[in-house]
Amino acid sequence: MQKRAIKKTGDKLSALGFGAMRLPTKNGMIDKEKAKEQIYYAIDHGVNFIDTAVPYHGGGSESFLGEILSGKYRDTVKISTKMPQWSIKKYEDMDNILNKQLATLKTDHIDYYFIHSIGKSSFERLKELGILEFLNNAKKEGKIKYSGFSFHDNKESFKPIVDAYDWDVCMLQFNFLDENSQAGIEGVKYAHSKGMGIIAMEPLKGGRLAGDIPPQAEKIWANSKKQRTPANWALRWVLNHPEITCVISGMNSTDQLKENLQIAGDIKPNSLTSVELELYNEVKQVYSNLMKINCTTCGYCLPCPANIDIPGCFDLYNEKYLFKDRTAGITYILRMGGVFNDGATHAGLCIDCGKCVKACPQKLDIPELLETVSKDLGGRGFGLKTKVVGSFILPIFDSLLSLRRKVANS
Fold it and tell me: pLDDT for 214-264, tens place per residue?
């Protein structure tokens, strides 16, 4: 397994990290024996970065890792988890949450501690509550070693967050379809220029770039001189970028694990040929042709006077139909409705000012398309839906934290 160094810290991480969000399950719960076997196999074959978070597996992921990562395995791996920023109402919450996570993970420190899914508005709120002071204190106390943030906002929001603090790492969604979405390659290069480690998540776009892909795309891969699975091609693209420190993969089968280990041990930065890179462009064009809205996520339409994340709304709408994504509606509520971020950025906020239309290189009728997205993903009573989801999901996360604290202290 190749190791890639973080310039700012000198820490060396395995090119492949194990994501504990999609562990094998049995009867709706983590299949502990199978998951333990896979994680141990990964560690024994060079993986040294294990990533989790409070919500994963209904709150069970952290406690499961706490059970199995002890002794020699704890000394071998870097544990990464995240602070659920949506649960923070005051400074004391930050300390309480971190202490609960340390107890749940059965460790005296967390190697990589990320603020979970921050964007422009949520970061401003957290700064007012003292998040940067908290990170400094947590480092001084030895509770966390390195600090970072995971990100799902747009590129305009990314750079100010990077510049606001001396971050060690960031975690970004990055795959060959999302090269220009969210923070995108521009954000990757910017964070890398600051010496930060960059952890790539969703290299297979939630599995959508593997398995059941469009026949036209499958044909392009099949015509290549080198025969690889779609998952192999997708993972190689991410690791081909020298800026990427580690790519997180949520592996829930031994075959997936072995394939990913082989790829991560094989692909070196800048090793894909020009012919191979052209194949990616051809496959991207297939997906582009199938998209409902021909948005390239260039971001020229931003900032929107109504604070709408126009590229983000279009991206979720495209995913619903391109990948038959049944979760697009709930994701839309969580991200655009302001559940995970204090500021709503959904399509229904459009005031039809026309500024975006003038700026769009694709000449899209953005206000009309936003109305379509709003009706489809938001539907009637969107504000009520947002309140219901927020009042339902966030308390569950908080309850899980409290329950695990009681278990850890019992």
Answer: 888 999 999 898 899 999 999 999 999 999 999 998 887 788 889 999 999
Q: What is the pLDDT of residues 365-387, one digit of tens each?
A: 999 999 999 999 988 777 776 66
* pLDDT per position as a tens digit, 252-269: 778 888 999 999 988 899
Amino acid at 129: L
Residue found by looking up tokens 């619903």 in the block: 320
Q: In angstroms, rounded to a whole number, what is the distance separating the alpha carbons of residues 93 and 107?
A: 20
Q: Give me the helices (H) in 141-229, please.
A: 155-163, 184-193, 215-222
Q: How many Cβ atoms are within 10 Å of 253's Cβ, its own excluded?
A: 11
Phi, psi of 201, deg, nearest 5: -110, 165
CA-nearest of 134, 177, 120 to 302 is 120
pLDDT band at 298; cut points 50, 70, 90: low
First-to-last CA distance in the chain?
39
How many helices (DSSP H) and strands (DSSP E) are in the chain? 17, 12
Query: What's the angle, vertex CA 129, arms to CA 312 and CA 339, rounded to 5?
Result: 30
CA gap 299, 133 in Å, rounded: 32
C-alpha span between 301 and 291 (Å, rounded): 19
How is the chain split into domains, by residue range? 3-272, 291-395
Fold (CATH) for 3-272: TIM Barrel (3.20.20)
Question: What phi and psi, each to the nearest 5 degrees, are found at residue 171?
Answer: -125, 120
Residues 155 and 186: beta-carbon distance below 8 Å = yes
Per the model's pLDDT, the better-predicted residue between 136 and 344 turns out to be 136
The CA distance from 145 to 109, in Å, is 7
